[in-house]
Amino acid sequence: MNKSIIFVTGLSGAGRSEVMKALEDLDFFCVDNLPLALLSDLSKLSNTPKEPEQRLAVSLDVRGNDFFTGFLSTIDNLENSTASNTILFLDCADEVLVRRYSETRRRHPIHESESLLECITKERALLSEIRARANYVLDTSSMKTNELRNRIGKLILNRDVSSDIIINVMSFGYKNGVPLDADFMFDMRFLDNPYYKTELRSKNGLDDDVADYVFSQAEAEDVIKNISNSMEQWIPLHSTAGKTSLTIAIGCTGGQHRSVAITEELSKILSNKFSSVTAIHRDIK
Length: 285
What we know:
By secondary structure, this protein is of the alpha/beta class. It folds into 2 domains: 4-157, Rossmann fold (3-Layer(aba) Sandwich); 166-281, no CATH class. It is 40% helix and 19% strand. The chain has 10 helices and 9 strands. The chain has helices at residues 16-25, 39-46, 67-77, 94-104, 116-126, 128-133, 145-157, 208-215, 218-240, 258-271, and strands at 4-10, 28-31, 55-59, 84-91, 136-139, 166-173, 184-187, 245-252, 276-281. The strands form 2 sheets. A 5-stranded parallel beta sheet has the order 2-3-1-4-5. A 4-stranded parallel beta sheet has the order 7-8-6-9. Helix 2 (39-46) links the parallel strand 2 and strand 3 (55-59). It is elongated, with a radius of gyration of 25 Å. It starts with a strand and ends with a strand.
């Protein structure tokens, strides 16, 4: 399968860095501020048989001396590449760009005039041909950072990526300390402990007979139902707010039996709703 290369460019201050972060979250291999002279080498690299599914995103900085005159001709020279080349142009209203530069106190890369607005106007004119050739034009004027990832997903991947949030469901033992990176934490110590069954003590929640013992308790089924329903409601809210990963911690005394069985079952249920769910068992020996 051919690899695709997304070239990200546009007006200075329009959010190129944030777009690259969003593409990185969507599993693009991102290269920042690549000189035009290296584009042909990158195209050759993209055609290697290794990792054929890898998608590349390249941001190009207008501060390069040859950018305005050399970008399109360089892209034209890549037409024979087996990679699919796409130009994403970032646009933004002049008044928003002026405000952003005023807030950051950064100097505009085209600083041939004392007027910031004049610099923006000149850059816009210099980029007009590139904008006309772009496959996608994204106006970031009124876009919040937490909206950008979903917008990029719909624009570039043509799908809703709101459910692509990475979810880790982690079992742990309270006697070994609580996980510091947990976003949600649930205590399973109210369930009967398989540890006190001699034939189950040396096993863990990955073993069928331990899981059967845990789920023979009506409370275990109830807690799975309640947690999964809550997570299916709350996780999309966190994704919409811009969070790219969540850790759900499930605890019991030693992290061997109850929390492991609950974690396995909860992971299976959430996998039916979300695309990236991993079960982690922190304290299994």
